[in-house]
Automatic annotation (TrEMBL):
GO terms for molecular function: tRNA (guanine(37)-N1)-methyltransferase activity. It catalyses: guanosine(37) in tRNA + S-adenosyl-L-methionine = N(1)-methylguanosine(37) in tRNA + S-adenosyl-L-homocysteine + H(+). It is found in: Cytoplasm. This is tRNA (guanine-N(1)-)-methyltransferase. NCBIfam families: PRK00026.1, trmD. It is an enzyme of class 2 (transferase). It comes from Buchnera aphidicola subsp. Rhopalosiphum padi. Gene3D superfamilies: 3.40.1280.10, tRNA(m1g37)methyltransferase, domain 2 (1.10.1270.20). The chain crosses the membrane at residues 18-38. Belongs to the RNA methyltransferase TrmD family. SUPFAM superfamilies: alpha/beta knot.
């Protein structure tokens, strides 16, 4: 299934930089990212391409059922092997060099580092599971990687696939107009984003920090770096464990830690 006919015509001078192939029994769910936001615009500009394949179209039964009982018993159903295998193989035949990713709560936790690695690939096949999951033989023989977007359970892999597509697309040239916007996002440099403010300057006695109104770009940069480091140390200290800090960052962070320690010591008396 191809949405909006954007995938149906490949011109001689195709500028498409990333191809996403999605195996899903609910292709209509992807209307949200193919028609709205930066991904919708990127598809319209043919910077990215999303093709959807429904295992129901690869069934050999009149009911087009895609679920089956698990061997050994147990609750729930599994996705049928044959239609799922055929859908994946069809996507592979079209994409040739694509990496196959299965969205699963048992997969590797998706993070910014992984996004930056995978964005170098030109073609990705996402397999969206349903029911209790998919046959292990498909995972062992057809899947290259398993991804999870968190330690919680969803009813299917579609939402996880959309999250991954959106995140990957942000790093494809031309999708986001200002490259700086992407580089200053949370997690880009293993740091959380700094606080943001817009007009009006004062609302219900809450003011915008004066430094942001000063026009002094160097001071604003330092303030933002300071707030970013402070927020990361306070909310996600795990991000700093393996980060190699620049001298400037190290000084700022040590000053903040000393300030916190002094405050704690003062409260102990």
């Amino acid at each position: 299934m191809e949405l909006n006919n954007y995938s149906q015509t490949k011109k001689k001078y195709d500028i498409t930089l990333m191809w996403f192939y999605v195996i899903t029994i609910f292709p209509e769910m992807f209307y949200a990212i193919t028609n709205y936001g930066v991904t919708g615009k990127a598809i319209h500009k043919k910077i990215i391409n999303i093709q959807l394949f429904n295992p129901r179209d690869f069934t050999d039964n009149k009911y087009k059922s895609v679920d089956d009982r698990p061997y050994g018993g147990g609750p729930g159903m599994l996705m049928s092997v044959k239609p799922l295998y055929s859908a994946i193989q069809h996507a592979k035949d079209l994409s040739k060099t694509a990496v196959v990713i299965y969205l699963s709560p048992q997969g590797r936790r998706l993070n910014q580092k992984k996004i930056l690695e995978i964005v170098k690939k030109k073609k990705i096949i996402f397999v969206c599971g349903r029911y209790e999951g998919i046959d292990q033989r498909i995972i062992d023989n057809q899947v290259d990687e398993e991804w999870s977007i968190g330690d919680y359970i969803l009813t299917g892999g579609e939402l996880a696939a959309m999250v991954a597509i959106d995140s990957i697309s942000r790093f494809i040239p031309g999708v986001i107009k200002k490259k700086q916007s992407v580089q200053e996002d949370s997690f880009f440099n293993d740091l959380l984003d700094y606080p943001h403010y817009t007009r009006p300057q004062v609302i219900k006695n809450m003011k915008v920090p004066e430094i942001l109104l000063s026009g002094n770009h160097d001071k604003i940069r330092l303030w933002r770096l300071k707030k970013s480091l402070e927020k990361t140390w306070t909310k996600r200290p795990d991000l700093l464990k393996n980060k190699i800090l620049k001298k400037e960052e190290e000084i700022i962070l040590n000053e903040f830690k000393n300030k916190i320690n002094k405050k704690k010591n003062k409260n102990n008396y």
